[in-house]
Write a structure and sequence with these properties.
single chain; Aldehyde Dehydrogenase, Chain A, domain 2; 7-stranded mixed sheet; Aldehyde Dehydrogenase, Chain A, domain 1; 6-stranded mixed sheet; about 500 residues; alpha/beta
Length: about 500
């Protein structure tokens, strides 16, 4: 095993080694419990550090701090322009800490260092800049009631929802934290953030940067621990008004049960089994490149990964060969090696899960064209895999694998392609590859998915709402919809009384 710690700056190494404290009420709080979680480099399997889970008392303290700051108006009563300035400063600080944050994402989260520095950090900064612009644009409307005999004026007002619990996944800790924190803060909420226990470091550093930028103490609180303990406590606590969660559909169902107590509002961005539709009139080379990128990026650990590739029979063999060639050309390696083009899965447990799906598919008689085995070395690598599934009855057709495993299936007609694309309990994303504009319009209308890309796949933008149909979730993130998710709508009707002096 070759440690990657010696490949990062001294500041990053020191931060990784800890101590790892909670952020509660604006203070760095030492955990009272013994460390039970390990920070592991998925490229090597090396245990880099450890941290403790928040106790019930510490989670309560974080919620209390958020509740107190919201109720006293410490942040929500700050002028919109001032809030915008603070969020803009957060973006600047993220960029100033680019190397540290990128290296944390690479060592703990399994992100390739180039993607972390040039993609993850940039996207996190952009989230705060984008939402800084919304701070001064949260506005209500006026309406004129039509009640006979009464002189009435009506207005609507948008107000922050209150205390928001933010629960983020491991496949993009820094970005996902930014995607939830920025709109919540723009809306005027106070928050409690719980990052995945697999990836805590960049979220902790981001919390520190928020304080440096001028977010008042206690407005942002961060606690660590498992979803079944700390996460469940946040969801169950009646002092929390809303929960925003990104993760698996099964966990989403559990959060719905946990949130029933005070009927708190939920935003759920859940699983996906996203189809990629390649028609015979597509630019086939571009489609092959886009489909390969859509499933092998971040080793397939992407919510919108294009894991079901549907190809017209006339182009099927060409696309299978092209994607397989792209898979075989990927350089599997550790995240700090700039020559690596495919990094590890997040953990040994997750690699075992991915491997079990492929092994089961083989036992079902499904053809594995390339890949289908664990990678070499001490880390949690898995070969990029291409599977042909003509019958659509295998486990890899219906289940979210969340790894670098593409299932390729042929179709004959446009109607068949659309029926196959919608043949899933999920509805998060899809892409259509065609040069026929009418066909594109028909397909985008018919697809039951919250995001549809045309001649591209997996490209996010802060102005584009993301979220799912069916069992891929509730609500949307990004754009105005993402800000509105942290707002309450209030209607005000006022009777205008006659001037009493008019009778005199």
């Amino acid at each position: 095993m070759h440690s990657q710690l010696d490949l990062v700056q001294a500041r990053t190494k020191s931060y990784i080694q800890g101590p790892h404290r909670f952020l509660i009420g604006g203070k760095a709080v030492d955990p009272s419990a013994a460390a039970e979680f390990h920070i592991t480099d998925p490229s090597t399997g090396e245990r880099l550090s450890e941290f403790a889970s928040a106790t019930e008392a510490e989670t309560n303290a974080a919620i209390s701090a958020a509740r107190r700051t919201f109720d006293t108006g410490l942040w929500r009563n700050v002028s919109p322009a001032q809030r915008a300035q603070v969020l803009w400063r957060v973006a600047n600080l993220i960029e100033e800490n680019r190397q540290l944050l990128g290296e944390l994402e690479a060592l703990e989260g399994g992100k390739l260092i180039g993607a972390a520095l040039n993609g993850e950090v940039w996207a996190a900064a952009e989230a705060f800049r984008y939402h800084a612009g919304w701070c001064t644009k949260i506005e209500g409307k006026t309406f004129k009631p039509s009640i006979p005999g009464l002189d009435l004026e009506g207005t609507t007002r948008l107000e922050p929802v209150g205390v928001a619990g933010l629960i983020t996944p491991w496949n993009g800790s820094l970005v996902m934290s930014a995607w939830k924190l920025a709109p919540a803060l723009a809306a005027g909420c106070s928050v409690v953030l719980k990052p995945s226990e697999n990836t805590v470091l960049s979220a902790l550093r981001l919390g520190e940067l928020l304080g440096e930028a001028g977010v008042p103490e206690g407005v942002v609180n961060i606690v660590l621990g498992g979803g079944r303990t700390v996460g469940a406590h946040i969801c169950e606590d009646a002092r929390v008004d809303k929960v925003s969660f990104t993760g698996s559909t099964n966990t989403g169902r559990a959060l719905i049960d946990a949130a029933k107590g005070n009927l708190k509002k939920l935003s759920l961005e859940l699983g996906g089994k996203s189809p990629v539709l390649v028609f015979e009139d597509a630019d086939i080379r571009a489609a092959i490149d886009g489909a390969a990128e859509g499933i092998f990026s971040n080793a397939g650990q992407v919510c919108v990964a294009g894991s079901r590739i549907l190809v017209h029979t006339s182009k099927f063999d060409e696309v299978v060969a092209g994607i397989s060639a792209r898979a075989d050309a990927l350089a599997i390696g550790p995240t700090m090696d700039e020559t690596s083009t495919l990094g590890p899965l997040i953990s040994e447990q997750h690699r075992n899960s991915v491997s079990s799906y492929v092994d089961r598919a083989r036992s079902e008689g499904i053809e594995v064209v390339t890949g289908g085995e664990a990678g070499d070395g001490d880390g949690y690598f898995y070969q990029p895999t291409v599977i042909i599934d003509h019958e659509r009855t295998s486990c890899v057709w219906s289940n979210e694998i969340f790894g670098p495993v593409a299932t390729v299936t042929p179709f004959e007609t446009e109607a068949e392609a659309l029926a196959l694309a919608n043949d899933t309990e999920y509805g998060l994303a899809a892409s259509v590859w065609s040069e026929n504009t009418s066909r594109v319009q028909r397909a985008t209308r018919a697809l039951r998915a919250g995001i549809v890309w045309v001649n591209c796949h997996g490209i996010p933008d802060m102005s584009m709402p993301i979220g799912g149909y069916k069992q891929s979730g509730w609500g949307r993130e990004h754009g105005w919809n993402g800000v509105e998710a942290f707002l309450e709508h209030k209607s005000i009707m006022q009777r205008v009384m006659p001037d009493p002096r008019a009778d005199g």
